[in-house]
Amino acid sequence: MPVSNGLRRLLRIRDLEEEQQKLALSSALGELQALEQAFTAAQASALSGREEVTRSAHSGDGTDRLAGMVQVRAAERFMLALRPRIAAARLQAARLRQQFLDKRVERRQAETLIRETESQDAVEASRRGQQTLDEWFRTRARTNAEADRPVAEKPEVRTVQETGAIPEEGTEFHP
């Protein structure tokens, strides 16, 4: 039986759903990467502020020391705000990754079903073709055998008068 249009539509829908999940996952991973980069930048800013505090302690400049402490505190507060967002983004990315993989499995199941149906159709078509070919050869062989067989001649029917034979006793004769 050929692959139905409904099955082909199902495959197309599964393909589109997989593509949507892939885009959602890509977006979530991009957001996670941006948050992690912001966290890394905040760590670098905190480190820079600490270095500023250390330099100002040696030079005795109070404003640089105060600026360094403010920079460290702001970076730490930013990192503190980013941690839960990063954790939520990781969970979201993991959930979307699982949904994407589920959609991929569904699409592959539909593809497998179509491929198996097409394979069965090909086997059936091959079998029918072989049956047709076998029948053609059988018909051809029968036709050739009949053509090669000598045609039996019609037996001559002779009457007793023509043959001049006398019927044997006990044999009934009806002219």
Topology:
Blueprint: H1 5-59, H2 62-148, H3 160-163
Walk me through what this model shows:
By secondary structure, the protein is an all-alpha fold. It has one domain: Helix Hairpins, CATH 1.10.287. It is 83% helix and 0% strand. The chain is built from three helices and no strands. Helix 1 runs antiparallel to helix 2. The longest helix has 87 residues. The chain is rod-shaped. It starts with a helix and ends in a 12-residue tail after the last helix. The mean pLDDT is 87.
* Low-confidence sequence ranges: none
**Major sheet attributes:** none
Average pLDDT level? 87
Shape: rod-shaped
Helical content class: over 70%
Strand content: under 5%
Give the terminus-to-terminus CA distance: 69 Å
Secondary-structure-based class equals mainly alpha
CATH architecture: Orthogonal Bundle
CATH fold name, please?
Answer: Helix Hairpins
Number of strands: 0
